[in-house]
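Curious: explain these tokens?
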Amino acid sequence: MRALLAALLAAAAAWVPLAPASAQGQYPDRPIRLIVAFSPGGAPDIMARAYAEKLKELLGQPVIVDNRPGATGAIGADLVAKAPPDGYTLLLNSSAMAINPWVVRQSFDFRKDLTPVVRTADTPYLLTVGPSLPIRNLDEFIGYAKKNPGKLLCGTYGIASPPHLALELLKKEAGIDVVHVPYKTFGQALPDLLSGQLSCSIDPPTVPMQQVRAGRIHAVAHTGTGTMDAAPQVDAIGRRYPVAAVVGWQAVFAPAATPAPVLAKLRGEWQKVIASPEIVRKIREAGFEPGGDPVDAFARAIASDYEKFGRVIGDNNIRLE
């Protein structure tokens, strides 16, 4: 943990090799490429395009969104990790970055080859149950699971996804036996939950929220530690079991050797982007909350997630098929 945190803080710090005067004094003087590790059309892509427009206003240069999905974000991350460290190629990725090294081989090390610029948004995941189950809160979920070991089938959007790891952490901390049912992407579990083939599901809140509000399924908990704005009445798993808290984040990264003046410029302008009222509205419409943590605090959060996810993956012998 200490070694990882030291590596992340070193990457986030203001150390740099000498850079051309144009990079230090006139940045940016040409378009910036924002590699987005998500598919076009989804909420993260919509948010990325809003960020790009606002950043263009602030920097006076075009910010070109380049979608490079695949391998749970590793394809886009690899491109940026190997890009020239001049501030003209940036990455928007998710907390899957702290999981991938434990389950897939990568030709880069995000801890050494990338440095955080800003945490743009974050959200806990929502635990929902099907309409036929007599469960309305976290206590009832745990009680039902203990009385019916191995009978609850809980879907997530994939093996080793943050919701899957959140489920495994809850199982361990609460002492319950729930069967994980992996799907391939967001939203695929919802029809099976509605039909009763699944008992429960853990998803980003935007996926089930419409059905929750219609009363077709029930939200019983979320994986964060505080109050979820979209569902303030829902129990927080992390409040009861702090070790089981999992909050998904999205963030911007740059190549690790990017010059300090360029990083300082980027961090300052991105903080303005995340704080602007129109961007805050876009983030919340997508089911997230604005980030904007100081970079050293975010580096510590990344290190904590990396160690936590590594432990749960090792403890449960989780492997990608």
About this structure: The two ends are 28 Å apart (CA to CA).
